[in-house]
Model the fold of this input.
Amino acid sequence: MPKLDDNPVPNIMSLGWNDLVLLKRKLSSSLRNTTQNIINIDTNKLPRINQQIYEEKTALNGLITKSKRNQMDIKAANAELLALSEKISQSKNFLGIMQNRLPRETEDSLLHIVKVNESLIHEGKYLSTREKDLILSIIRDATMKIEAIKAFRTIRAQLQQLESHSELTTNSLLMLNNESQSLQQEISRCKKRIQTLFDSKHQIVAERSSCLSEYNDTSLQLEKLNAQMDLAADQRRRQRQEQIRPVHDMNISTAKELARKKLQSGAKLSLEELRLLYDENDF
Done:
């Protein structure tokens, strides 16, 4: 018996009817399995991988958008920190200059001097215009010193606020930089996942192409097999018909011989027996 190998089409001419039937069952089963694989790819594998790719791309777009905002925040924080640094530098320079120019007197003592001398002016307790001008000069000098002390104190308070603000901005910038690094790492991981999914999709598409090729090959094999089985069926039918005729002829000859012997013995013959004996055409 010929062997039913994996590629039986070239050998079907040498197969018997039973082998042809077995081969058809095998090819039909293979075709069903291949069809089921294609359906599974189209309805399950490809939609699932496409959905996963869509979800990862959506996540990636979200991360990129967040990263862009983060970079804008970093840029703004750097600009703010630079502006604060310039203001701090200016304030320190001003305080450094003013430090050596501050009066030795305290603000309270200067306020007292202003108050006393203004009282002299208001009460007219001066002997001459020259003395009045001297008192007014003392008031102006003390007032300028007071303003210098106030300005120094104000700038120093502003410097403290600027330094505090700068520290907060520096800490915020550090957090933003850490967030940026974390976002870039997550973006990198997301891109790798997407690439892995695309690689899997390419494999699924290749698998589908292979299944389609296998489906076409098996369909062609079945088509050739069916044609061969049709030929074999016709041949089997002719063989059966050829076998029936000799048997039928042999039965007629036997009946004629029995009828002849019956006639010779003087027995009565039936109409059918008479026809067998005297019909020239036999049939």
Residues 1-10 have pLDDT under 50 and may be disordered. The two ends are 42 Å apart (CA to CA). Residues 15-245 form a domain with the Helix Hairpins fold (CATH 1.10.287).
